[in-house]
Amino acid sequence: MPKIFFTSDTHFGHTNIIKYCNRPFKDVKEMDKTLIENWNAKVSPDDIVYHLGDFALYSVDNIFDVIKQLNGYIFFVPGNHDKNLLKAIEQYKFELGIKIQILPKLYQDTILIGNEKIPFVMCHYAMRVWDKSHYGAIHLYGHSHGTMPDDPSARSMDVGVDTNNMQLYSIEDVLVHMYRKVDHHE
Questions:
Q1: How many Å is the maximal CA-CA distance in the chain?
Q2: CA distance 147 to 181
Q3: Nearest Cα to Cα of residue 102 among 36, 53, 33, 160
Q4: Which residues fall within 8 angstroms of residue 143, CB to CB, at 6 or more apart?
Q5: Are 169 and 7 within 8 A, CB to CB?
Q6: Among residues 41, 39, 31, 40, which one has the least CA distance to residue 11?
Q7: Is pLDDT larger for residue 6 or for residue 185?
Q8: I need a labelling partner for 134 at 20 to 30 A (CA). Which of 7, 41, 87, 91 fits?
Q9: pLDDT in tens, 104-157
Q10: For 155-186, how does the pLDDT look when each residue is reduced to its tens digit (9 = 90+)?
Q11: CA 59, 62, 68 angle in degrees (round to 5)?
Q12: Domains, the chain, with CATH or none
């Protein structure tokens, strides 16, 4: 069974994100190398990654080079900085094959975890309410780089790398986070 991971806001190739988000890197080369190593340390070639926007600020060719280095099947929910990502995937679709898929900007899916079907709503942006939010749906987002306070009563979570020491979140990480919220607020 493949494992499932979530992330957002990697910003490969974005020099200024180091300063904007106080990332612990001397330059973009070190940041990219660390992000790729962290990704591949967790994700096997058969695992699934949902990337919720702002993948890279590189040229089309450089984005393709980064994607080739990453393990797993990657499902992209586009963010506001993903214009070149979309072009790269279109240009290199035959080389990438089934490894990559673009999802809608607001993506909803039900993920089977054990015997339970859990609805997920994924978007680059945080929402205060979302489809089935009052019925247990989990909302995952990015964009805010950990600057928004976590709502302790909402089944929502910022899955950006800036909120998790430059690491991806496993589905187990997300469920533990949601369980702690429910455990303390219901």
A1: 49
A2: 19
A3: 53
A4: 8, 9, 53, 54, 79, 80, 124, 125, 126, 160
A5: yes
A6: 31
A7: 6
A8: 7
A9: 999 999 998 888 899 999 999 999 999 999 888 999 999 999 999 999 889 999
A10: 999 999 999 999 999 999 999 999 888 654 44
A11: 140
A12: 4-185 (3.60.21.10)
